[in-house]
Design brief:
One of its GO terms (molecular function) is pyridoxal phosphate binding. It comes from Leadbetterella byssophila (strain DSM 17132 / JCM 16389 / KACC 11308 / NBRC 106382 / 4M15). This is DegT/DnrJ/EryC1/StrS aminotransferase. The protein folds into two domains: about 15-240, Aspartate Aminotransferase, domain 2; about 240-360, Aspartate Aminotransferase, domain 1 (Alpha-Beta Complex). About 35% of the residues lie in helices and about 15% in strands. The protein is built from eleven helices and 17 strands. Strand 11 and strand 12 (about 215) form a beta hairpin.
């Protein structure tokens, strides 16, 4: 059997991409906010019904731009259970991450613990919609208003997710997303920033393009732009999004029906009124020994899940202060994401479940 990875990047029919690239050759415009990039931005803004939407070169720079555009300082309360970019973006902007533990059911930041972590140095909360499941957005935004602090959502996993009839990307003062090649929707590399204020939006656009327009310089920016080649991939992939999500949903159903839920659990979708994107299929096992045994058994069959997320971010050696997050520290060694992509053979999905069940 060929190697089965935790994910496989979707590639559209080659001829569709090549046809889109013809427009690049015709315009001879390769980057610097070209026509395909503008078209993709406009299309996504309308499709997702978002007020202000700026595409970036990746999801990490999107978080950094959000932090910078909001003029944050001091401390940012954040989650220990996320990809490292959530934490490193705070550190790169010379701010201090303050970790608040997660809930055991959905593995999102525990909003009930946030207020106790607020100090006179707190400028924002940066929370991740883990695996695309919504944080407690109502409570977090209530806390933000009460204390006058900003709310940023790392929505890297949440493209296309809707909560209470609204895009999950529309919550918070700002949200960011990743369009990395492994995501449900991708532009090979890419991301976006969403906000609700025109002045803030214009600031983000300046910041992602070195802070200048032609010969007029307004602020110290960075290169956070994306190219026409990436935009072309995004425009083509959008036409396949419904079938991508449907394929992922079908595999979800097989795992749901065949895994032994007496010996493991899946992070639950706590929120109601949710339209999901089936971004990841994580399971939490009883202990780390079982987790490692399952991984070894799968790898013996050329199947490679991922410990996503491991380790818990509050234990990283470059984090400046120690925080005790018992739930995250317990879950992180026990969680794995299972292979999930639209054209994954359903027979292999059943085999993965059988191998896991045999190790429990």
């Amino acid at each position: 059997m060929n190697r089965i990875n935790v994910t496989k990047s979707f590639l559209p029919p080659k001829e569709e991409y090549e046809k889109m690239l013809e427009r690049v050759w015709q315009s001879e415009w390769l980057t610097n906010n070209g026509p395909l990039l503008v078209e993709l931005e406009t299309t996504l803004q309308k499709k997702l019904d978002l007020p202000y939407f700026a595409i970036t070169s990746n999801g990490t720079i999107a978080i950094q731009l959000a932090i910078k555009a909001l003029n944050l300082s001091g401390e940012i309360i954040t989650t220990p259970f996320s990809y490292c970019a959530t934490t490193t973006s705070i550190l790169w902007e010379n701010l201090k991450p303050v970790f608040v533990d997660i809930r055991e059911d959905d593995l999102n930041i525990n909003a009930d613990l946030v207020e106790a972590a607020i100090t006179d140095k707190t400028s924002a909360i940066l929370a991740t919609h883990v695996y695309g499941n919504p944080c407690d957005v109502e409570k977090l935004e209530s806390i933000g208003k009460k204390y006058g602090i900003k709310i940023i959502y790392d929505a890297a996993h949440a493209f296309g997710v809707e909560y209470k009839g609204k895009p999950l990307l529309s919550y918070g003062d700002m949200s960011t997303c990743s369009f990395h090649a492994t995501k449900v929707f991708h532009t090979v590399e890419g991301g976006c920033v969403v906000c609700h204020d025109k002045e803030l939006f214009e600031r983000v656009k300046l910041m992602r393009s070195f802070g200048h327009v032609q010969d007029d310089y307004y602020l110290a920016g960075v290169n956070g732009k994306n190219s026409e080649f990436h935009a072309a991939m995004g425009l083509v992939n959008l036409g396949h999004l419904d079938s991508i999500i449907a394929g992922r949903k079908a595999i979800f159903g097989i795992y749901d029906q065949t895994l032994n839920w007496n010996k493991l659990y899946k992070p639950t979708e706590v929120a109601t009124d949710l339209k999901y994107n089936y971004a990841y299929y994580p399971i939490v096992l009883e202990d780390e020994d079982t987790t490692l045994r399952v991984i070894k058994a799968l790898q013996a069959e050329n199947i490679y899940p991922r410990r996503y997320f491991y380790p818990t971010l509050n234990t990283l050696q470059y984090v400046p202060e120690t925080y005790y997050c018992p739930v995250s520290e317990s879950v992180s060694p026990r969680v794995i994401s299972l292979p999930l992509y639209p054209d994954l053979d359903h027979g292999i999905v059943n085999k993965i479940a059988e191998i896991i069940n045999a190790q429990l």
